[in-house]
Specification:
mainly alpha, 10 helices
Length: about 260
């Protein structure tokens, strides 16, 4: 009911983006593409211990499954398990381990930023120091053999969160309601956490609420403004993910036919 009440104001804000900054508008889908590439690299690094697979195939898998995850119950997880078992004969346990480690690095990245972001003043440039501090811990892990792989993955995941924060910063600016980058970073953490909730297609609904409530709490941003920014980001995501996902699924299908699996 609250969302419906805010809908007219949200649509009015989106209509106000008639002459947006073309650079900022172009950056939104480019940042989505960046997130997609980084996610694919994470899964490639974690998976190559169990299967020989090219980065291109991993990118196609991530693109296709990201689109599939917009469906209810997030079937991408089960589709990934089935794909690697059927095409590459990877044991189910190995794929589940990769998924668990990927989720685990997200949790670690969120916790690292939650550790440092509250220590900085939202009106200062301290947010830069918070990001540097968050990156420093996994960078140290690169020098320890036991933690090197997961440290690399964690660094990539932090870059993903950073791109997400930039997307939010740009989206709020495009609708004429800019927020501080510290706030954008905090909201990005909430959005990424919502994205991890099982059985909700890419955090649909929950992510919008997380953005709206946290932006309101941190910056006093009205719910309608936050929803408008999230709708703009969703539009940029779909602009990239729909064609990328369809193209990836088509290519992977042909790949399986050629290989006879």
């Amino acid at each position: 009911m609250v969302a419906l009440r805010e809908l007219p104001g949200t649509l009015e804000l989106l209509r106000g983006v008639e002459r947006p900054d073309p650079v900022k508008l172009l950056l939104l889908p480019l940042l989505v593409m960046g997130n997609l590439l980084l996610t694919a690299e994470i899964f490639h690094l974690l998976s190559r211990r169990f299967v020989r697979i090219t980065r291109l195939e991993d990118l196609a898998i991530v693109s296709g499954l990201t689109l599939a995850n917009y469906l209810p119950f997030r079937p991408g997880i089960f589709m990934r398990i089935g794909y690697f078992k059927g095409r590459h004969e990877v044991p189910v346990g190995s794929t589940v381990r990769v998924l668990a480690e990927a989720y685990g690095t997200t949790v670690v990245s969120v916790l690292l930023l939650l550790l440092f972001l509250p220590l900085v003043d939202a009106a200062s440039q301290g947010v830069i120091l918070a990001w540097i501090a968050a990156f420093t811990i996994p960078v140290v892990g690169l020098f320890l053999d036991r933690f090197r792989l997961h440290a690399r993955v964690c660094i990539i995941r932090l870059f993903e969160v950073l791109l997400w924060a930039i997307r939010l910063h740009l989206a709020f600016a495009l609708i004429g309601e800019p927020i501080d980058f510290t706030v954008a970073s905090g909201v990005a953490l909430a959005g990424m956490s919502a994205q991890m909730i099982p059985f909700l297609g890419n955090g649909l609904g929950l992510r919008e609420w997380a953005t709206g409530l946290l932006a309101g709490l941190l910056a006093g941003t009205p719910l309608g403004v936050a929803l408008a920014a999230e709708l703009l980001i969703r539009a940029a995501e779909l602009l990239v993910i729909i064609p990328a996902g369809i193209a990836a699924a088509t290519w992977l299908g042909r790949l399986k036919v050629r290989s006879g699996t």
